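Q: Hi! First time doing this. I have a protein sequence and I read that you can turn it into a structure. Is that right? Here it is:
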Amino acid sequence: MCYNCSLFFNRLTFKQHRLNIEKVKRMRHFINLNDIKIKELHRILDLSASIKNELKSGVMPPYLAGKMLAMIFEKLSLRTRVSFETGMFQLGGSAMYLGSETGGIGKRESVKDFSEVLSSMVDVIMFRAMKHRSVTDFAKYSSCPVINGLTDLSHPCQALADVLTIREVFGEFKKLKLAWVGDANNVAVSLVQAVAKLGMKVSIAAPAGFQFRDKNLRGLGREIDPAFEIELTDSPAKAVRDAHVVVTDVWVSMGQEDETEHRKQVFAQYQVNEKLMKKAHKDAIFMHCLPARRGLEVTDEVMDSEQSKIVQEAENRLHVQKGLLVWLLNEANR
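A: Yes, that's right. Below is the predicted 3D structure, encoded as structure tokens:
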């Protein structure tokens, strides 16, 4: 190769490398709900509702034809795997499962190498991780969008399904109150981040040591609806009073099994049962991200009541995942 040709080739390669770096830096991911604006949240919900209605009508437009989703799992899953895999199929794309047999990220090879190689071959990545930093570090090197499928700090996809369910039941968010009863965990964080943008009132009932440290929740986001109000209490009765939505989660999450007996004692007074639900608004609904431990955080009577929206809520994981994928690939990163 002549000197001038070699110089031109090197300059072209450097320019392409710089463009690739800039692309990674401006890539839109979905790691936390506080990373998106109010109008973007509404857009994702609108897309989800529209795509759901199309499916119910027997129509499945191939919005993501030819696209490939890689799904990385460090934690067990039912709803997350099925909703993403089914969702990509219904959108005209494909999905692949990457479990522990693929090789531990940061063990067999570095996070940087794993992320750069995988993102060069697929269009979008969903990462269900043990640690939140695993997802943020992975996204830092990815050249395609990364979706947080769950971490120890947040579960934004579940929150999308929750607020879509609330919108389907009540038609709006304003003037509604949501009560969370139990451990103020990662699921609670994402749900509060979502409703903070939508203007719902929130009351969190949790025992000492399991409550949010303050009302800021590590920053509720770039935008918060001015009507948003949050109350922190240790009284389930106070939290659910006049609440339109009552939500709980397991007392013992994955990775906390050694705390089981202690947590059962601490949360004994935080069970969602018929007596507690009667203190809520007359039109109140009950939600749970599942899996549930019937007889612990919630009774069979509540789980199987007309107020329970757990099946609708779980199904909506499919629809919001599809709305999110379409938004990320066809709008947010265009």
